[in-house]
Amino acid sequence: MKHIIANWKMNKTKEEALSFVQKLSFFLETNNYNKCNISIAPPFVHLPVLYNTNNSFNLIAQNVSVENFGAFTGEVSAAMLKDYVKHVIVGHSERRKYFNETNELLYKKIKILLENSLCPVFCFGESIHARNKGDYLDFIERQLEDVIMLFSQNELSNILLAYEPVWAIGSGSSANELQINEVHTFVRDLIEKKYGSMYAEKIPILYGGSCNSDNTSIILRQPNVDGLLIGGASLSNDHFHQIIQLANSLD
Ligand code: PEP
What is the 6 CA–ligand 1 centroid distance (Å)? Predict the structure, then answer.
């Protein structure tokens, strides 16, 4: 089963979101895409709206507060999200960059999600600086060790990982298959060393960073890639439907 997640970021008005999901639902209901698990991560305000219209795909939240409740203007808690989603994106590079989210904070966010029976979609990936310097595997290992590897196997039983090299996000060109393979294999090996092979085989590792209909098949054919996290190309019905069609046609 391939996981296909649309991360809309801060895009789409209510009307645009409704029009998109109406077309998506029709597309999914008239075709049998049983090899893909489709999810949409819309802005928070659209979650209740889309929740009431949909049953052919999952909803995911783009963020969660590190606090449970109280005087934190503008924040949304895990308990509030629970009514609409099962998964929440944590660690996206835009949150790390523009909102100064550190590994320490991300650890706390994941803890809160788990306490509320929500599953993290944990994003990690190196900067262009680490890639060019050549120590990107160390950089990635640190991101995983400082956040998700502090949890037990049991706690992480429903986590999804998403490798998102920062330099590929929104750039128009994805990492190539050798680069993706190297990191995904490295991450699966790290997980295996800590949690054992039974668990390592099962944990989904998605790729994100300029995925589109031209590179979907080649990326998803890589042995350790279990799905895609898609930004820009998930905003258009045509592009997103093409990606689903391609993902579903692979063995
Ligand atoms: C993302 O930000 O998660 C992402 C993958 O964006 P894009 O597909 O636009 O590179």
Answer: 9
Catalytic site includes residue 92: yes
> Domain with 199 in it: what CATH number?
3.20.20.70
| CB crowding 35-56: b at 16 or more within 10 Å, else e | ebbbbbbbbeebbeebeeebee
Q: How far is the CA of 210 from the centre of ligand 1 (A)?
A: 6
Question: Quick check: is 87 catalytic?
Answer: no
pLDDT tens, residue by residue, 12-50: 999 999 999 999 999 999 988 888 999 999 999 999 999
* Number of domain units in the chain: 1
How much is the pLDDT for 32? 82
Element (H, E) at 119: strand 119-124
3-state secondary structure of 136: helix
Distance, CA 243 to ligand 1 centroid (Å)? 14
Name residues contacting ligand 1 (CB within 6 A): 7, 164, 169-170, 208-211, 229-233
* Count of helices and strands (H, E) across the chain: 11, 8
Domain hosting 199: range is 2-249
The residue to which tokens 């990191």 are assigned: 183
